[in-house]
What does this fold into?
Amino acid sequence: MERGPSPEEEKRLKGHADPAHENKQLQQGSDHVDEEAPDSLRNNDSNKLLGDINWFWLSQTDIIPGFWATPWHRSQALNIEICVGAINVITEAIQSIVGTAGLINYRYPPEPCSPANSKLSKTIDWMNSGKSTYPAYAYNGQGGIVCHGAFTDLTGSDSLFATPIDAIEVLNTRAAADCIESSLPRCQQDVERCIIELMRLDAWLCKVGSMPEIRDGRSALLTQTPALVQELMDRFEPSFMEADMSSAEGGAQLNKDLAQTVVEWLTQSHKLTRAEALYALVAVLRTVKVGQCVLGGPDTSLLAEIMEKDVQVCLV
It folds into this structure.
């Protein structure tokens, strides 16, 4: 991943309590060392770096064609119940802003002559050619990367943005409580579906991120989104777990209520406009779907441990 954290950056960015301080630290570069940090803390964070990840970094991870082989399964942040519950709630929150027509659900693989096929075909070619994407707000992202493909205009977005924006797209989302494990992308077709979905979410985040409401917005989301995603996940993780477990009985209304709470937290506690709240919610949706992909991919932590400790490897 091109913009992964250095050990020093990971140490400084653990808390995310103060985004302004966070950005100041990032500007100091990877060579800056916090002289006040104990050596034991530095060494501990360095040792955990390969096996630990958080929502801050998952929100800006490159989407690269492949099977998501990572050493991050042991990370305390990742939990399939949290991911599925968050997808349920954030989807409801997005729909509360743009309506049901603003969130399009395509089936993958698409039928050969279907509208979805014409929309997705160039994105599929992009993926098959080995190209990657990342969102506009990524660290050193410089506006992000927009994949090829056709997109659908979001009708009625004039109340949020001065110019039309694209609808938000998901591919064959399965979020019922009785299929939590099946929501993990295991087979090649599921992995491809998730990669294409994430690439198109990145395209949305790049294109909408270039609009004045976001680019010049008072909340500075092109620099603050990763910290905001981390803060939102820290705040609502327990609720997301409950949202998923309650889906079988009366969960729909509970999820709607929680979604409204999330939107109010963004617009009232953080003073985001509704356009900014929508952007933040799509970034959260993208982030938890990345977490879902990581959990469904191969665990390489044993390989990382071998590379760190095996004497013969060290001698090569």
Notes: The longest strand covers residues 103-106.
